[in-house]
Structure formats: C-alpha cells, structure tokens
Amino acid sequence: MKEYAVERIEKKRVINGITEYFLKWKGYPRSKNTWEPIDNLFCKDLVAEFEKSEKNKAQSNNNRRKIVSSEGDSKAVIRLKKLANEKNKKFGFDRGLEALKIIGATDSSGVLMFLMSWKNSDKLELVPATLANLMCPQIVIDFYEERLTWAPHIGNVKIKNSRRLAKKENAY
Prior knowledge:
Blueprint: E1 6-15, E2 18-25, E3 34-37, H1 44-71, H2 75-87, E4 99-108, E5 111-118, E6 124-128, H3 129-135, H4 137-147, H5 155-171
Antiparallel strand pairs: 1-2, 2-3, 4-5, 5-6
Helix pairs in contact: 3-4
C-alpha cells in the first residue's frame, strides 16, 4: 500500500455526517488536491493545527462583528468611515458644514459622487452619494426631482393605431 504525505489542509466540509478535509499533497500540484474523510488521515497534528487556525479566524470575525454592532452603524456608514480614514479626507459634514444643494453627480471609480455646495462656503466638494443619502436625504430628493422628466404616455400610440383601424373599417 502506497502512502502519500500531506503538505497542508486547505478546507473542511461535512457531508452526511462525515467530516472531510481538502488536502494539498506534498510533491503534487494543486490540481491533484482531494477531499479525504478524517478516518483515512494519519496527520492528526495537521488536523489539530487546521482546526485551531479555523477557530482563531472565527473568533476574529466574531470580534469584528461585535465592534460593528456595538457602534450601531450601518454597513454603508462603516465603508464610508473606512474610505475617509484611508484617504484621511474629511467631507464637509465632518467639518461641521451644512449641505446647501447638489450641483451635479459623477461616477468616481465606480462610486456615485455628488458635487455639493455648502451653506456659508463658496467651495464645492465631491461627496459619496451614500453619505449624502444619510446626511441630507431631502437635498438628494430635491436633486433628483429637479432632473425628473416624464415620458409621453404610451397609450397614445395605441389610440393612433386604433384610429387608423377604425378608418380602414369604415372605408369598407
């Protein structure tokens, strides 16, 4: 019987109550990785190391969730705070300014940004739309309402066609 050496354990799954580990074999490419039931493994130290690593990851993720939920912030606000922290940029709201009007909108690297004017300030500033939605929702609504246009009623087309049909029917 040939024995193979396990380089590392990459994943774990449970199917029909049987625990299996996804193994990377020493001397073989990743394409040869296989799922093996725990009963077939003779590398209990690697299994213990993998389980400890997974437990630490779970605890770390749990701690992050607790921090987020204790602050009571929404996901959008958290992302914006991270964005602001990464770039060390404070938006007008962070400087205590009050929004006056949205002048325009643009797509900046896949993020919708509003060009905003501020009360008691001549400066304009690009602000993420998600932040504006939270901080000044009525101003965002006003911006969209100013640009709202109504399409002609599609029902008119049907009326025109029905008039043509009526004329043809009367012609006979």
